[in-house]
Write a structure and sequence with these properties.
Layout (H helix, E strand, L loop, with lengths): L9 H22 L7 H29 L9 H31 L4 E3 L3 E3 L7 H35 L4 H4 L15
Antiparallel strand pairs: 1-2
Length: 185
């Protein structure tokens, strides 16, 4: 279930793909809000999905920080460092979105809806300054995350098509992969 020195475990694999699907869904929902006829409904759906996924995404971030990054044999130190930096930057971008999203809503004086039932009220009074800063951080983080995800996918495809390693396969199935070591522990 957990990662080992030579492979990703089921927990990492399931969290990777589940969070990837959630982040893509949230990015699409978020980009579809402004100017839509049903802007309020889309914003409520975006916030409901985000708040529902919040703990799962936070757990994914903590799990990756705890487990490190197993290293594939044959991958240069530079390539491994670039992949780790990209991955950590994705985690930072998602973290900033997890913080700025609720702050933006609360600073706008809105409670955060959870699929039309329960709401999470703001812990402070409305503030235009906080709202504007949070909105800026949220928007920039979303765009940075998109760029980093494109780089991440490009790297995975590069390994799949041009290298004789199992980088891509390791995120599909936790089978035994020889020659993998983890230098982050």
């Amino acid at each position: 279930m957990a990662d080992t020195e030579d492979r990703y475990g089921w927990l990492s694999i399931v969290l990777h793909w589940l969070i990837a699907a959630l982040v893509i869904t949230l990015w699409i929902l978020g980009k579809s809000i402004d100017g839509a006829d049903d802007e309020d409904a889309r914003r409520a759906l975006h916030m409901s999905v985000a708040m529902t996924a919040w703990l799962l995404i936070a757990f994914r971030i903590a799990w990756r920080l705890r487990e490190g990054h197993p290293r594939v044999a044959g991958v240069s130190d530079l390539t491994h460092r670039i992949a780790k930096v990209n991955h950590y930057l994705m985690l930072i971008s998602v973290s900033l979105m997890l913080l700025s999203g609720p702050l933006m809503a609360w600073a706008n004086g809105a409670a955060i809806p959870l699929f039309g039932g329960v709401t999470v009220p703001g812990p402070f009074p409305p503030s235009d300054a906080i709202r504007d800063v949070a909105r800026g951080i949220h928007g920039i983080s979303a765009n940075v995350l998109l760029l980093l995800v494109v780089l991440h996918i490009g790297g995975a495809l590069k390994h799949l098509m041009f290298h004789a390693d199992d980088v891509f396969a390791r995120m599909l199935w936790p089978g035994r992969h020889d020659g993998v070591q983890d230098d982050t522990r």
